[in-house]
Design a protein that fits this description.
The complex is a heterodimer of chains A (about 475) and B (about 100). Chain A is an alpha/beta fold. Chain A contains 16 helices and 11 strands. Chain A has a domain of about 250 residues: Alpha-Beta Complex (Amidase signature (AS) enzymes), CATH 3.90.1300. The radius of gyration of chain A is 21 Å and the shape is globular. With about 100 residues, chain B is mainly alpha-helical. The chains are: A alpha/beta (about 475), B mainly alpha (about 100).
Chain lengths: ~475, ~100
């Protein structure tokens, strides 16, 4: 493996190259930084580069190799991190003017764990402001372009994370998913994106949007690399009381088992309203899995059509509370005023963009006196029904297959004027977050225009192993 | 569902958020549109359904408790480093109580 083919490197080929001394971690880090910086004007995927941090991490890996010590699971691997995940001493903006100059005093647990395994952070990735959006057009620092079609959006909110992997400027990246923000951009950019079970990865250091729905997850160019990153960062963390104690399976051994004999569910509700191209591509992927020995069974997730309403009440309610902290006191930006309450109002009015304001307003409204039961409690009850749809379905099937999005990547500006139409691009991904089940997008073909289409796979709580098994076997066969 | 500009201003006040006149008009339209959509939830009878506040998994009731061992936390200096204005170990804000 030569260092000149950065965009085809995998975690495995990097490991081989380092151990065979084809290249050093320092050489790889320098090459990756130079390549990412040179390519960035095309997509605007990166907001900040971190050469010092990258070279420090690479030097540690090279020192281990020189000593002949064992190296970490991610030794030397160029990693990009979505800019809603905090990095100590490295600017973390959340794509917002509000945090343009924010330098976090600590690292997210996911970041710490990946760096302990030798990962080399080369930069922070653009995203919709506070992870609110489906197209990456809501970043205060400019939109991100889809590397597969530069006039189209990369999806959102983790648009930079998906674009960097698709463009080859990072081997793996971290994103966050609250309503589809990993799977939808993975699907639009033709890469693999994983939303683990809620609680599987610590949220410590993930800037809070909707705490009961927020997940950190990986992007990579193949299923195996996503499994490696998830394995390295998963598990209980005392800093996040919602992080789970559940044992972490040996994904790599389990996913390479045959899928013969698995039963996969096809929820009828996810196949209405698809573009015909997307439908045809998904159907072919289902056939492929059937030919590998899976039994395909039609199932129903009857409350799917209520997910959008349920989600936009719960997510905005939690966001309105979580974003109350940006008031001009602790987090860098302040609009001066003689009175305290006026200072809060002016700072927030000037620091937040249109979509964030819209969601704070909606969330404040649904939580306000007289409306709480009608909106917020109602939505929480509907969330129970949506979660129950999944637990009922998983009595009969091992995993569920569906499209990620009703259509492939849309044109920049196409949906920006109508919030509700934009929200509809997430209709197939919201349910996974509401139920808390693991789900992912794996590339399964392209539209007539050559735009990538992703297959979504859902599995039972904490059964990422079966999800990876379906995805890996599909990937190998396609 | 209609949200008047007066309603919007009241919610903005609750949210500590300055909005321009233009933003108020736009918000009135957008929020009305979204609230009309979410009214579909009323079609569901949820009278016997428990609300779901969190994704919960089986674990011992004391699973999240830990030993009470002191450990280091952020220093005062680090905690204040991102404040626009601080002094003597505190965040500084505009005067809250007017003594005149």
């Amino acid at each position: 493996m030569s260092i000149t083919s950065l965009s085809s490197l995998t975690i495995g080929t990097i490991r081989q190259g380092l151990l065979k001394k084809d290249f050093s971690a320092k050489e790889l880090a320098e090459a990756a930084l130079a390549f990412a910086q040179a390519e960035n004007p095309k997509t605007n995927a990166y907001l900040t580069f971190s050469p010092e941090r990258a070279l420090d991490a690479a030097a540690k890996v090279d020192a281990e190799i020189a000593k002949g010590s064992p190296i970490g699971a991610l030794a030397g691997v160029p990693l990009g991190v979505k800019d809603v995940i905090v990095t100590k001493g490295l600017r973390t903006t959340c794509g917002s003017r509000m945090l343009e100059h924010y330098i976090p005093p600590y690292d997210a647990t996911a970041v710490t764990r990946l760096e302990e395994e030798g990962a080399v952070i080369i930069g922070k990735l653009n995203c919709d402001e506070f992870a609110m959006g489906s197209s990456n057009e809501n970043s205060a620092f400019g939109l991100v372009r889809n590397p597969r079609a530069l006039d189209r959006v990369p999806g959102g909110s983790s648009g930079g994370s998906a674009a960097a992997v698709a463009q080859g400027t990072a081997v793996v990246t971290l994103g966050s998913d609250t309503g589809g923000s990993i799977r939808q951009p993975a699907s639009f950019c033709g890469v693999v994106g994983v939303t683990p079970t809620y609680g599987r990865v610590s949220r410590y250091g993930l800037v809070a949007f909707a705490s009961s729905l927020d997940h950190i997850g990986p992007f990579a160019r193949n299923v195996e690399d996503c499994a490696t990153v998830l394995k390295a960062m998963a598990g209980r963390d005392e800093q996040d009381s919602t992080s789970a104690f559940a044992p972490i399976d040996d994904y790599h051994a389990l996913m390479k088992r045959s899928v013969k004999g698995l039963t996969l569910g096809l929820p009828t509700e996810y196949f209405d309203g698809l573009t015909s191209e997307t439908g045809t591509v998904i159907e072919a992927a289902v056939k492929k899995l059937e030919s590998l020995g899976c039994t395909i069974r039609k199932i129903s997730l009857p409350h799917t059509k209520y997910a959008l309403s349920c989600y936009y009440i719960i997510a905005t309610a939690e966001a309105s509370s979580n974003l109350a902290r940006y008031d001009g006191v602790r987090y860098t930006m302040r609009s001066e005023s003689a009175s305290l309450s006026d200072m809060y109002r002016k700072t927030r009015g000037a620091g937040f963009g249109a979509e964030v304001k819209r969601r704070i307003m909606l969330g404040t409204y649904v939580l306000s006196a007289g409306y709480y039961d009608a909106y917020y409690k109602k939505a929480q009850q509907v969330r129970t029904l949506i979660a129950r749809d999944f637990s009922d379905a998983f009595k009969d099937v091992d995993a569920i297959l569906a499209p990620v999005s009703p259509f492939p990547a849309f044109k920049i500006g196409e949906k920006v004027d109508d919030p509700l139409t934009m929200y509809l691009s997430d209709i197939y991904t919201l349910t996974g977050d509401l139920a808390g089940v693991p789900c992912m997008s794996v590339p399964c073909g392209t539209s007539g225009d050559g735009l990538p289409i992703g297959l979504q796979i859902f599995a039972k709580h904490f059964d990422e192993a079966t999800m990876f098994r379906v995805a890996w076997n599909y990937e190998q066969a396609s | 569902m209609n949200l008047t500009e007066k309603d919007v201003r009241k919610v903005a006040d609750l949210a500590n958020l300055n909005l321009s006149d233009e933003e108020v008009a736009r918000m009135s339209h957008d929020l009305g549109h979204i609230l009309t959509h979410v009214e579909q939830l009323n079609a569901l009878d949820t009278s016997k359904v428990e609300p779901m506040a969190q994704v919960l998994f089986d674990a011992d009731e004391t699973a999240t408790l830990r030993e009470d061992i002191p450990h280091t936390t952020l220093s005062n200096k680090d905690a204040l480093a991102n404040a626009q204005l601080s002094g003597a170990g505190y965040y500084k804000v505009p005067k809250v109580i007017d003594r005149t």
